[in-house]
Structure formats: structure tokens, C-alpha cells
Amino acid sequence: MDSVYKSDLNRDVAPARPGEFDALHIGALRIWPPVVLAPMAGVTNYPFRSLCRRFGAGLYVSEMITARPLVEGNQKTLRIADFGADESPRSLQLYGVDPYYVGEATKRLVGEGRVDHIDMNFGCPVRKVTSKGGGAAIPVKPRLLAAIVRACVSNAGRVPVTIKFRMGIHDALLTFLDAGRVGESEGCRAVGLHARTAAQLYDGEARWSAIAELKQAVRSIPVLGNGDIWEAEDALRMMRSTQCDGVIVGRGCLGRPWLFRDLASVFSGCEPENPPPLGGIRDIMLEHAALLTTWFGERTAMRAFRRHATWYTKGFRGSAELRQRLMQITTLEDLRQALIGIDAAEAFPPTAMRVPRGKGSGTQSVSLPENYLLDRDDATPPGPEAEDEFSGG
Description:
- By secondary structure, the chain is α/β, with parallel strands linked by helices.
- It has helices spanning 46-55, 67-71, 75-80, 99-111, 127-130, 142-156, 176-185, 208-217, 232-242, 259-267, 278-296, 298-313, 319-326, 332-338; strands spanning 24-26, 29-31, 35-37, 59-66, 91-95, 117-122, 161-166, 168-170, 173-174, 190-194, 223-226, 246-249.
- It has 2 domains: 20-272, TIM Barrel (Alpha-Beta Barrel); 278-347, Non-ribosomal Peptide Synthetase Peptidyl Carrier Protein, Chain A (Orthogonal Bundle), CATH 1.10.1200.
- Strand 5 (91-95), helix 4 and strand 6 form a beta-alpha-beta unit.
- The mean pLDDT is 94.
């Protein structure tokens, strides 16, 4: 591999040595390499999951669904919860703020045989969610968090449950150690930490030292690290420096599903291949768009694919003009026509290796309900306004 495709951070990072890392075990699930695709709203649908799976093994989690509308039979929620016929294991992220609805949703998912793994999300930093006591605000109240997790675990049977959360609200209100201990004590099979606070949103660097701290506090179940896995070697650095048991990959694979191929390579002791040139990326784009069309229908698929097209082409020469054409596509043929004339041999730009995709940068002042911090032992669930179908973390 040409070293131009390794950042200075990773230039001296060697692939894994034989036996250096173990497979990730989540209940009865054995995951190798120990890599999990993070749920991302509007992104990690079955077509994208299947594309990532083709590049490498691991665990691929669905888009997040919300417990209350699932229990009430909302058809859109049920559609998001769909898996491909060939998909195994079937991993789904569930969000809820009320133990009753979380328990009923879990009963339905497990009783209908829909899932092999449930991940619960307690990391959403969105203002309209936290201001009502949902998302990243829930771990502030450990008894409420425990009640929600207990409702899921107790109704999941043999289906393993995991939870994901952030470091806390801000640096003066960190909750991740309590959240990890709640997950461990309530029967979760793993916990995952996005090593940023809600106030950070997606800004700056993830603080991997918090992952190491959580690993020291939670000993009986796996701890997964999330944040700034842009190159395959980042996963090795994270696991070596924190002793975590696996990594969660989010924005780093947007427009770069071959990152999972690279991860499989480094965990197997090999150097990753070069990224595909622009012609190879064109072929991946067309494959991705065709999968979306089969799943959603052409009109919906092409509208959804536009932002993927931006991520795929970021950093290439003349990509701004190309993206203008790609933002107008309404059919697969439009996409094919928009890609005519590209320089198929143009190499992947090294400067694009670590360019953030997806969520933008910037910090925030986190909004919580009035008097929310006066009684952190309160386990009263917030109302349905604390739920949001696109609450990611």
C-alpha cells in the first residue's frame, strides 16, 4: 500500500499481530472483526448495510426506530425495522423514554422473530430531544435509565441487548461511568461510548481516554469505542490505547463503504488496499443507487442518494461541478448520465481520507427541562415529546 494513504497519525501503525485481538462476543453472537456499523438515520437502511457487508464482516445495525410508534403500529416505523431476507444477524437500534413502551416494543420485535440483537440509544444531543428529557438527558437520571434498560432486557429473552451513550451533557456533568454500570448491572451484553459530550455534538476530537476509563469501570461485559474512526488503523490505535473490545464506525464510512474491507484487512494482519479510483467509486455509487431503488422505489431512492453522492465524490478534482449535477438526479439513468465523462483513473485524493462527512462541526449549550437536575434520582419517564424518530447519537 502506498503510504500516501496513511495519515501522519497512522503512518507507523502496524496491522494486528496474530492473536492480538479477540472476536467480539455479544451474547451468542460472535463478531469478527470486532467492528460495528453505527446506526445513522436515513443512512443505515438495508441497501447500505448490505453494501458495507459485502466489503467486510462485522455487525451492521439498522436505522434507529422509536418504541412508542412501533407499539402503536406506525407503518413507517415498521418499514424502517425491515431487514433483507439474507441478512444475519439482524441488529436493530431501539429508542424509547418510557419503560412500558420499550418493554412492549421489545416483546413485539422478539416475539415476531424480527431481531437477533437490540441496541438502545441514549446519546442523542439534539436540542428538541434533550430539552424534553430524552436522548442524552436520560443518563443524567440513572434510575430512569435503569428502568428503561431493564424493560428491554427483561423482555428480550435470549436476544442480547446493548446500550450506547455519550460522555455526558458537558464536562461538568459527565454520566458515562454511571451509564456503563447501569448497563452492566441490568443485564446488557455490551456498552458503547461515543467519546464526546452532548455539548460537543460532533466537534473536535473524540476523547478516547474516556473509553479507557469506562473499560476500567465495566469489567464483566465488552466495552465498545466510538469516535473518529476515519482510517482502518484508527481502530487499532483505539483498541490498543484504551483496551476496549471493539469499535463502532459512523461517519468514517459515509461515501467510503470500503472502510470495512480495510478494517477486515488490518485486523487480519494485512495492509489495506488502496482506495478505489474515481471509476471504481462510480461503480459503487451505481450499485448503491440500484440497491436503494429496489428497496424504496426509484423516486424515493434517488432523492435519498443525493447526499451519498456528495460523500462519495468529496475531494476529487472538479467535484463541486459534478455534485451540482448529482443534486438534480431523479432516476438511475440521470445518475448514469451525470457520471459520464469523469476521469475513471483519477486516484482517491489523500486529503479526503479524514475529511468529516455527515454531521457538521460546532458546539452547543445543551438544553434540559426546567429544574431537571434538582432530583437526579427521579425515575419518572418524560412524555412522548421527548421522542424523535431521527434521534441519533
